[in-house]
Design brief:
Elements: E1 2-6, E2 9-13, E3 18-22, E4 30-31, E5 44-48, E6 53-56, E7 58-61, E8 68-69, H1 73-78, E9 83-89, E10 92-97, H2 99-112
Parallel strand pairs: 2-10, 4-6
Antiparallel strand pairs: 1-2, 1-7, 3-5, 5-6, 8-9, 9-10
Length: about 110
């Protein structure tokens, strides 16, 4: 599991969905900050097998298994289907996002702005 921050906000991704982690410099990256209506910015880019990338400010690998708690349907719909549930890690709830779905959702937020 990758535990990430976009500004002060938390996000989690399944590690197996991330093909590589790279610098966002020189590549088109959908900043995770868009989901929180904040200005774009990222220190790292999580690249999916599809080639799409999501930028995050920080990330840590958490090797502990975490059960996935279900997300309310209204929240799943509001996230464009990218919210897969929540995980409890380090005493806090982290929204678990599907990387490719979240990247498409963020691109839609940017195009709709």
């Amino acid at each position: 599991m990758l535990l990430c921050h976009a500004g002060p906000h938390r996000l989690a991704f399944h590690a197996h969905e991330v093909a590589s982690i790279t610098s966002p410099v020189g590549r088109e990256v959908a900043s995770a900050r868009r989901a929180f209506q904040a200005s774009d910015g990222a220190a790292r880019a999580l690249v999916a097998a599809s080639g799409g990338a999501v930028g995050v400010d920080t990330l840590e690998i958490d090797a502990e298994p975490h059960p996935v708690l279900p997300a309310p349907l209204v929240a799943v719909r509001a996230s464009g289907g990218s919210l897969q549930g929540f995980v409890l890690a380090r005493g806090e709830l982290w929204p678990l996002m599907g990387l490719s779905d979240f990247e498409r959702f963020l691109r839609g937020q940017w195009e709709g702005a």
